[in-house]
Design goal:
389 residues, Nucleotidyltransferase, domain 5, 5-stranded mixed sheet, disordered N terminus, single chain, two-stranded antiparallel ribbon, alpha/beta
Length: 389
């Protein structure tokens, strides 16, 4: 490699005003180009005042773009503070940022990040805009509440089984109209199986006599107490889910304020059945105004999945160059690592994105679903590129 002026030539510099940050739980190490200041590596505590001071320092020396690793969730406040100050911030995947072999320290990691970013070798992870990120946070919090509520449904079923109450055999869902009415009556002290059986809904397939026979049980105080606790926790999380629905509706309304109403009326609903665990308001009009197209017209996508699609991806699909890139981001496409004519793909699957588990994709269905999703992405991209009136 040629030398010029006593210095070894290296990779060309793409971003001459780039910084790298090694994220930590207690402090962050920031590295900038050595020619910008006397101390190119500085350490800042994780307190908000120190983050503001970090942003002031970076702006004062002329930094335009900053790179950091996605270390846990500690990078989120740093990202938001720097982004609010007008800096171009990218979050690189930790698997793609491999440090040089040898001694490892926070300072060397920050300098290595800065060097890679200055040479344009880091690929930014996808992160939606601020408003879409807020919608995504509300939806992910709602999903966690649904998971917690599902665990307490299992606790209710376990308590009923301990008391030999075969309620789950005569009703399709213990949290349905009939199931909850009977469980609340048992918690309130009712033990007569005839009276409990009369609480069945008219749509219940099992007759009154079958329900009565299933509700003859061995009531023990400790199991009734466990049922009471599980029901109270289930009701608690249902209340939290309703609060999340209110915030989601408010956020969607805020996102739609700057969007013009489409000239064409909202198409007729393709999905007539109510989706389980869906939000408690009609999302189709808001999503239609926000996206400009009715995503529920795509085969296999209902109103709730369309809401998740918007929350995870946003409305600007130009962040992915092609539909194939979008499918790869969803981790639905196989790898293409080939060396020496041999397939070097890892057998361990990559972790799924937040959108794919909602689709309930099974491996045997991936091929057909992936093709349909790719075609839908192309159609959505073309519709979003059309000018609005």
């Amino acid at each position: 490699m040629s030398r010029r002026g006593g210095e070894q030539a290296g990779l060309p510099i793409i971003h001459d005003r780039a910084a790298g940050i090694d994220i930590g739980s207690r402090f962050h190490v920031v590295a900038v180009p050595p020619d910008l200041c006397d101390e190119p590596v500085q350490t800042f505590q994780a307190f908000t005042a120190d983050l503001e001071r970090m942003a002031d320092w970076l702006i004062s020396i002329g930094i335009k773009t900053v790179a950091m690793e996605s270390t846990g969730v500690y990078w989120v406040p740093v990202y938001e503070v720097l982004e609010s100050r007008g800096l171009d911030v990218i979050v690189a995947n930790a698997r793609e940022v491999r440090s040089v072999p040898g001694r490892k320290s926070d300072i060397s990691d920050a300098q290595w990040l800065q060097r890679l970013h200055a040479c344009g070798l880091l690929r930014a992870s996808f992160r939606p805009g601020r408003d879409i990120a807020a919608l995504r946070a509300y939806l992910r919090l709602r999903e966690r509440h649904l998971d917690y509520a599902a665990a307490h449904i299992q606790h209710m079923q376990k308590a009923l089984t301990f008391m030999n109450l075969q309620l789950h055999h005569v009703v399709s869902d213990v949290t349905g109209v009939t199931g909850l009415k009977i469980i609340r009556a048992i918690v309130a002290g009712e033990r007569d199986p005839q009276l409990l059986a009369r609480m069945r809904d008219v749509r219940c397939k099992a007759d009154t006599e079958t329900v009565r026979a299933a509700l003859i049980g061995n009531y023990q105080p400790e199991h009734v107490f466990a049922l009471t606790q599980a029901l109270a926790l289930y009701d608690f999380y249902q209340a939290r889910i309703e609060e999340c629905d209110a915030e989601i509706q408010r956020t969607l309304a805020t996102l739609c304020e700057g969007e013009a109403n489409p000239t064409a009326p909202l198409p007729k609903a393709r999905h007539r059945t109510e989706q389980p665990n869906a939000v408690n308001f009609d999302t189709r009009p808001l999503l239609y105004q926000l996206a400009g197209v009715d995503l529920t017209q795509i085969h296999g996508i209902g109103p709730y999945l369309a809401l998740r699609l918007i929350a995870e991806c946003g409305t600007d699909l130009s962040r992915w160059r092609t539909a194939k890139h979008f499918t790869s981001w969803l981790t639905l496409s196989p790898g293409c690592k080939i060396s020496g004519g041999r397939d070097c793909r890892r057998t361990r699957a990559r972790p799924l994105t937040g959108l794919v588990p909602i689709c309930d994709l099974q491996p045997s269905r991936w091929a057909g679903r992936t093709r349909r999703l790719a075609r839908s992405t192309v159609a959505w991209r073309r519709a979003s590129e059309r000018p609005r009136p």
